[in-house]
């Protein structure tokens, strides 16, 4: 069966993007940087989560942010207040970051700083539950956020995002007493799509679950850097 032109074009775009993602990841690996791709629908709480993460970990980890937004630098400006490098990428009409866009942020990091000094790069993707999960950017882990205000069925209706997630944060838990939402049902629906993702309920307002999230971040950075430490020790 012959592929339609649109199907073939989509495959070619994903293939080209994957090559770029592998190139980006090679840079991160060379520098000893762990990279997270943070994804969600608009308003699920990506930026406030990053604010909390920077406030808690910026003195313990050297962090930079690549901030994707369609037209503004509003979120980038919020994150710059924490004294970390933030590289804004405006995507125009594109509903996601791709590996070439993120490469632009990586090149800015390389030209303005010594990238080997950094431990973690957080990529905040454009708010969208579909496209960001299909286009890798060179990340070592995908982080998905799902607000409890979005409903229990989102993992079933938008499966790719949840199938690809290494860690799922169920956000805005402080609103749970006011909503008819079953957190266990959300988790069960996620498990249908992905039995292996770490699931962490959090609230940026009350602080619920944030320590668990911070510990997960630190453990991922440590595990990503362990091969480099082992290689350095063995070369002595």
UniProtKB/TrEMBL annotation:
<comment type="similarity">
    <text>Belongs to the SIMIBI class G3E GTPase family. HypB/HupM subfamily.</text>
</comment>
<dbReference type="InterPro" id="IPR003495">
    <property type="entry name" value="CobW/HypB/UreG_nucleotide-bd"/>
</dbReference>
<dbReference type="InterPro" id="IPR004392">
    <property type="entry name" value="Hyd_mat_HypB"/>
</dbReference>
<keyword id="KW-0547">Nucleotide-binding</keyword>
<keyword id="KW-0533">Nickel</keyword>
<keyword id="KW-0378">Hydrolase</keyword>
<protein>
    <submittedName>
        <fullName>Hydrogenase nickel incorporation protein HypB</fullName>
    </submittedName>
</protein>
<feature type="domain" description="CobW/HypB/UreG nucleotide-binding">
    <location>
        <begin position="37"/>
        <end position="200"/>
    </location>
</feature>
<dbReference type="Pfam" id="PF02492">
    <property type="entry name" value="cobW"/>
</dbReference>
<dbReference type="InterPro" id="IPR027417">
    <property type="entry name" value="P-loop_NTPase"/>
</dbReference>
<keyword id="KW-0342">GTP-binding</keyword>
<keyword id="KW-0479">Metal-binding</keyword>
<keyword id="KW-0862">Zinc</keyword>
